[in-house]
Specification:
Blueprint (H helix, E strand, L loop, with lengths): L2 H7 L1 E8 L5 H11 L24 H6 L7 E6 L2 E7 L7 H9 L3 E7 L6 H13 L3 E6 L8 H12 L2 E4 L1 E4 L7 E4 L4 E4 L13 E2 L5 H8 L1 H17 L5 H5 L3 E6 L8 H11 L6 E3 L2 E3 L7 E9 L8 E9 L1 E3 L3 E4 L4 E4 L4 E4 L2 E4 L2 E3 L3 E5 L9 E3 L17 E7 L5 H13 L4 E4 L7 E6 L3 H14 L3 E6 L3 E5 L16 E5 L4 E5 L2 H10 L5 E2 L11
Parallel strand pairs: 1-3, 1-4, 4-5, 5-11, 6-11
Antiparallel strand pairs: 2-3, 7-8, 8-9, 9-10, 12-13, 14-15, 14-23, 15-22, 16-21, 17-18, 17-23, 19-20, 24-26, 24-27, 25-26, 25-29, 28-30, 28-31, 29-30
Helix pairs in contact: 4-5, 7-8, 11-12
Bound molecules: guanosine-5',3'-tetraphosphate (G4P).
């Protein structure tokens, strides 16, 4: 195997997804600990006074105690080079999360054992399923009272329509939690209260038939149901198939407690064995081989001002093939230009280190002087690739926004345009009206507050915001159609997006139906033609 191939094959790039509070941050922290990427437990999060995760960059996030931005962390573990994509769990940031999932090759889904599947888990799962990426489930917080493991796995199967294969099985929960039974190796990992830190847990080999030894270890009361459960699983549960796992049809399930660092390392080890090296991305319907082809990458995220010391923007690239060299120039497909990717870096919280090389599977951040948009392709000259399938979502909330100080027109326009380029908001205006008041559409309502905050702190512009009652957005399929000739309900608004496409904002679903009924031949699109998301 060539050195390049070796470097690429040892990479694993995955996203961690969960409903807020299920334990994503805690699990990420423990994984980083195993990689030696952080020194102390609790440095990602945990200090009661200054509680924030390594991935929290913006002030606003810290104030609210939620992760707004997604971050990327790289670490080495037993010969693997691992890229973790952290995804914001808050429901308001789903769009950003969806894009982040485009950069991942598999996903780890963290579920709270007392709560089971929650609304955000559902949304995120759908996106993973759309891409058919493998999903590994970590059922967390077994040290608290939990639902029955059968109930939890059944819920996954019925709600998500996938198979599950429990890799281990919990023995009790809450105060009774005694550990897990490792089905593959037929041994028990015993839980004691002091599992914090990096300690490895020595498994105890124990056959289920060895009643005496089991009783001594976990007690008769827990031994009986364990033996019955495992018999049932072995007899009636799904068969394990790596092929099914890799096709995203069978989710391996692990039980543990991230906070107590219980079950995390065995999870990491089996996860790494089962996941795949960087998967090919498609360009023009053809897969681009990560190893055989030259450097190519796509922009999946743009983030401004992560570090107060550097007032800049960073474009995040997922490398799809080949190797990136810092000193070389690459072709920016959408701009049709050769460019140098300035200050290429990998990120670890607000620490950035400049890198000279990066391989397929890696995520790098590059300085963005305002030339990148989400979904752009960068590659070696002459490669003829253009990656596709970056989902955009129809906004669900709208507001009219204008600046308080009329002198600050330039800053206002620049700020709003840049934030829109990052994909955090979409902007519209009434045809023929100069940009005094603009209409902003967002997927999550908290983005409006982020916009207000960022315009104030980064661009020095105070804004007035008026929330608008629109709920539905439709593009006109025929670009030549004059919307003023249409018969519409009086509260329907005609606007244009930044490309000059005409669209309609409706206050309710029935107004859309009205428009279709009263205007024969009218065709409306839920997404802009150029930006239709991948179909399920
Ligand atoms: P998130 O990123 O998915 O939102 O979840 P996060 O890791 O922040 O965890 C949410 C809460 O759940 C935290 O408690 C965390 O300590 C706790 N937690 C995570 N894993 C476990 C576990 O295995 N067992 C138990 N019992 N708790 C767990 P918090 O009170 O909100 O914060 P903190 O003050 O403990 O940091």
């Amino acid at each position: 195997m060539s050195e390049l191939e070796n470097e690429i094959r040892r990479r694993r790039t995955f996203a961690i997804i969960s409903h807020p509070d299920a334990g994503k941050t805690t699990l990420t922290e423990k994984l980083l600990l195993y990689g030696g990427a952080i020194q102390l437990a609790g440095s990602v999060k945990g200090k009661a006074t200054a509680r924030h995760a390594v991935s929290d960059w913006m002030e606003l996030e810290k104030q609210r105690g939620i992760s707004i931005t997604s971050s990327v962390m790289q670490f080495e573990y037993e010969g693997y080079c691992i890229n973790i994509l952290d995804t914001p769990g808050h429901q308001d940031f789903s769009e950003d999360t969806y894009r982040t999932l485009m950069a991942a090759d598999s996903a780890v889904m963290v579920i709270d054992a007392a709560k089971g599947i929650e609304p955000q888990t559902r949304k995120l799962f759908r996106i993973c399923a759309m891409r058919h990426i493998p999903i590994f489930t970590f059922i967390n917080k077994l040290d608290r009272d939990a639902r029955s493991p059968f109930e939890l796995t059944e819920q996954l199967e019925t709600e998500f329509g996938i198979g599950t294969y429990p890799m281990n099985w919990p023995i009790g929960s809450g105060r009774d939690f005694k550990g897990v039974y490792d089905r593959e190796n037929r041994q028990i990992l015993v839980f004691t209260e002091n599992h914090r830190g990096q300690n490895r847990i020595e498994p105890v080999a124990c056959r289920l038939e060895d009643t005496e030894a089991l009783d001594a270890l976990i007690g008769e009361r827990l031994r009986r149901p364990l033996v019955e459960d495992i018999e049932l699983l072995d007899g009636a549960g799904s068969e394990f198939s790596l092929e099914e796992v890799r096709a995203g049809r069978l989710s391996p399930v692990f039980f543990g407690s991230a906070l107590n660092n219980f079950g995390v390392e065995p999870f990491l080890e089996s996860f790494l064995r089962m996941t795949m090296p960087p998967l090919p991305r498609t360009s023009g319907g053809r897969p681009v081989d990560p190893v055989a082809e030259g450097f190519s990458a796509f922009v999946f995220k743009i983030q401004a001002n992560m570090n107060k010391a550097h007032r800049d923007r960073i474009a995040f690239l997922r490398i799809c093939s080949g190797v990136f060299h810092r000193e070389r120039e690459y072709y920016h497909v959408q701009e049709k230009k050769m460019i140098k990717l300035a200050q290429p870096q990998q990120l670890m919280a607000d620490d950035r280190s400049i890198i000279n090389e990066a391989y397929a599977g890696d995520i790098i951040g590059v300085f963005d002087p305002g030339i990148f948009s989400i979904g752009d392709t960068i590659c070696e000259k002459g490669m003829d690739v253009c990656f596709e399938g970056m989902p955009t979502f129809a906004p669900e909330h709208f507001a009219a926004v204008e600046r308080v100080d009329t002198m600050k027109r330039k800053q206002f326009e620049k700020g709003v345009e840049q934030i829109a380029q990052e994909g955090a908001i979409q902007i519209f205006h009434e045809p023929g009206v100069v940009m005094e008041e603009i209409i902003v559409g967002v997927v999550g309502v908290l983005q409006l507050e982020v916009l207000e905050y960022r315009l104030r702190t980064e661009y020095g512009v105070e804004i007035r915001r008026r929330d608008l009652p629109y709920e539905e957005i439709r593009w006109l399929k025929d670009p030549r159609l004059d919307p003023s000739t249409l018969n519409l309900t009086s509260d329907t608004k005609v606007v244009e997006d930044f490309r000059g496409n005409k669209l309609l904002l409706f206050t309710a679903e029935w107004c859309v139906r009205w428009a279709l009924e009263k205007n024969e031949g009218l065709e409306l699109l839920e997404f802009n033609r150029n930006e239709a998301p991948e179909q399920e």
